[in-house]
Each structure stands twice: as structure tokens, then as C-alpha cells.
Amino acid sequence: MAKYEEELRRHNRERRKAVERMALPRLTCRRCGHTWIPRSDRMPTVCPKCKSAYWSRPRKDEGNVKSD
Asked: CB within 8 A of 14, min separation 6: which ones?
């Protein structure tokens, strides 16, 4: 039993060190400004807040609108 507990402690120490070394990227939606940490290493398809599929693209210039 003591051998198992020591092995478990060693595993937990190694895991904590690995998590500390890992840099968690923060993503920001360029549409609504929401910032989040992704759950996987794949690029998200939509912003979790506004659900925009164009979260990583800046808005086009709104200067094209004619005013009276």
C-alpha cells in the first residue's frame, strides 16, 4: 500500500510541474471582445459568447455606409 501511495504522490508532482510549464493561450473574439481559454488544442469554430464564426477576423471598415 505504501508503494502505491508513493507512486501516486510522484505522479501528482510530475503532473503539477507539467501543468505549470504549459502556457495556456487566451483567445479573444474580435467581434464582441470576449476572452476565453480553449478546452482543446484545436482552433474553435465559433466564439463561445456571441457564437460568431468570424471571431478571429476583424470587422470590415464601416466607413462605406453613406449618410444623408
From this structure: none
